[in-house]
Amino acid sequence: MVRPFEGNFTQQEAIGDIAIAAAVEVLQSGRLHRYNTIAGQLSQAAMLEQEYATYQNSKYCLACASGGYAMNIALRAAGLEPGEPVLTNSFTLAPVPGAIVGAGGKPVFVEITKNLVIDLDDLAAKFKSTAARFLLLSHMRGHVVDMDRLMAIVDANDAILIEDCAHTMGAKWQNRNSGNFGLAACFSTQTYKHLNSGEGGFVTSNDPAFMARAIILSGSYMLYEKHGAAPDPSAFADIRLQTPNCSGRMDNLRAAILRPQLVDLEHNIERWNKRYGIIEKRLSELNTVQLPVRPKEESYVGSSIQFLIPGISGETARHFIDANQKLGVELKWFGSDEPVAFTSNHSSWRYIEAQNLPRTDAILSSLFDIRIPLTFSLQDCEHIGEIIAACVQELSPDGECQ
């Protein structure tokens, strides 16, 4: 009998001493607002924008209040009109369709494959059937689709690509940073992402007019020259008077916490991938489990892991989750009709017209998900793999409880 696991799947690593000291310095200064600076001083938020633009190999960066807000203003800055269709993955998290609706668009879901990426054949078909101008591509749970083929489809349809990189900060496709393929990319620094400021996000782009609109939308008033990675002031000449203020700036306190974390990001990616590899190896030994195939062109960040048990029934899936929970392993299941905490699927987003997605539904009905916080040791990950394996082995060959 495998012993229970006693770790906590929501416990992130403590904020480091350097970040805490930087945060205290901001608090002691009283200058929390990103534009509250003395002459000649760059704010923490502006310096973070410079540093993240450099890390991302992007010309421009805007620090925002959240990843969801970043997607919302990216769509608006890209020219989305009220009621326009926006294509997006059918497997994603609620902030993605929420951002589309919040920006005035209409989400149109594209089927996924068993590798948990957008189905490129269905994408091409839906570009034609909807005449959509926009694709908000969600690199859900850190899985990167064949970006060469995707860009061929986007270009053939003269479409605008915005990448949701909440789960792929630090990931690459053929050594090109995730987020550097379309007009813009959006990132999250919410607690369970790769940098942790509680809430927060970035928009990056190489397009000066787009970024000028995004900065004004973020609530820069006429203080856009105080941004750290912004276009030349000439880009704002007309845009500053034509674009509404939809305040969603990042403050200096969160920026101060994030800057030291960015320095450590590449090291932490190595740590995540070691932990991912241990769990992946154990699950790969189970005949009834399928793991998404990661193409050789992809460099990923294994901060979570997903696996499928094809053919499992809803009742058995719930029993399987309960069995793992009793042994201390917290699994999420995307096949439930009812949302649970952060986990939901398109059938529960009832502010959107229901859409027929049979292939996605079949995949989600057998899909399980687990976070891998860096507070877990390598031995913890071995233990977690053994618990999941033990619970899988109690299922019959057809995926039912014995």
List the helices and strands and how they pair.
Layout: H1 17-29, H2 44-56, E1 60-64, H3 67-77, E2 85-89, H4 95-102, E3 106-110, H5 120-130, E4 134-138, H6 147-156, E5 160-164, E6 172-173, E7 176-177, E8 184-188, E9 201-205, H7 208-217, H8 239-242, H9 252-263, H10 265-284, E10 298-299, E11 304-308, H11 314-326, E12 332-333, H12 358-364, E13 367-371, H13 378-393
Parallel strand pairs: 2-3, 2-4, 4-5, 5-8
Antiparallel strand pairs: 1-9, 6-7, 6-10, 8-9, 11-13, 12-13
Helix pairs in contact: 1-9, 2-9, 3-4, 3-7, 10-13
How many domains in all?
A: 2
Quaternary state reads single chain
Q: What Rg, in angstroms, do the CA atoms define?
A: 22 Å
Architecture (CATH level 2) name of the largest domain:
3-Layer(aba) Sandwich
Tell me the span between the first and last alpha carbons.
17 Å
Strand residue percentage: 5-15%
Mean pLDDT: 96
What's the main sheet like?
A: 7 strands, mixed
Structural class call reads alpha/beta
| Sheet with most strands: strand arrangement | 1-9-8-5-4-2-3
CATH class of the largest domain: Alpha Beta
Number of helices: 13
Question: What is the CATH homologous superfamily assignment of the largest domain?
Answer: Type I PLP-dependent aspartate aminotransferase-like (Major domain)
**Structure summary, number of beta strands:** 13
- The low-pLDDT segments are 398-402
Helix-strand topology string: HHEHEHEHEHEEEEEHHHHEEHEHEH
Shape, principal axes of CA atoms: globular
**Annotated CATH topology of the largest domain:** Aspartate Aminotransferase, domain 2
Helix fraction? 25-40%
